Amino acid sequence: MWFDRWGGIVPLLLGEFILWLGFGALLPVLPLYFTEQGVDLALLGLVIAAWPAARLVGEPTFGWLADRTERPRRPVARPRRPVARPRRPAARRRAQFVNGLGAVVPVQIRP
User: Fold this and answer.
1) Three-point CA angle 17, 19, 20, nearest 5°
2) Cα 61 from Cα 67, distance rounded (Å)
3) Residues 6+ apart with CB under 8 A from 108
4) Where do the domains of the chain lie?
5) What is the pTM of this model?
6) Could you give the CA distance from residue 94 to residue 87 in angstroms, rounded to a whole number?
7) pLDDT at 98
8) What span, in angstroms and rounded, lies between the C-alpha atoms of 69 and 12?
9) Which residues of the chain have pLDDT under 50?
10) For residue 70, with 0-12 CB atoms within 10 Å meaning exposed, 13-18 middle and 19 or more buried, which class applies?
11) From residue 55, how far is each of 49, 62, 98, 105, 106 by CA, in Å?
């Protein structure tokens, strides 16, 4: 029953869980690291509070914007386009990066 309603956003929920798990894992260590580096604990409080404060303002704002703008239709999958292999190492790395972007599969969650 729960999965029937919320199953479509399980990947988002899992990503959010992993994100907050990592943030929570850093919290006990941050005061030790900051004091070792000579940073005041008041600044540590500001650093820790900055991210939730930015989310408090940003998420409703961008949610409102997403609700009022047109969502373009995207394909569920697209074929990879191979990129020619350049001879120079820097150009080869750029080509590999662009070729790797073709492997990304955009997914749209439909209600």
Assistant:
1) 70
2) 10
3) 71, 73, 74, 76
4) 8-68, 77-111
5) 0.45
6) 12
7) 61
8) 21
9) 105, 107-108, 111
10) exposed
11) 10, 10, 31, 27, 24
Q: How far apart are CA 72 and CA 32, in angstroms?
A: 47
> How much is the pLDDT for 47?
85
In SS3 terms, 10-59 reads as: HHHHHHHHHHHHHHHHHCCCHHHHHHHCCCCHHHHHHHHHHHHHHHHHHH
State the Cα–Cα distance between residues 59 and 105, nearest whole angstrom: 24
Q: Can you tell me the distance from the alpha carbon of 52 to that of 19, in angstroms, rounded to the nearest whole number?
A: 12
| Predicted confidence (pLDDT) per residue in 52-72, tens digit | 899 999 999 999 998 888 877
Strand, coil or helix: 3 = helix
**Residue 38 region by backbone torsions, left for phi larger than 0, else alpha for psi between -120 and 50, else beta:** left
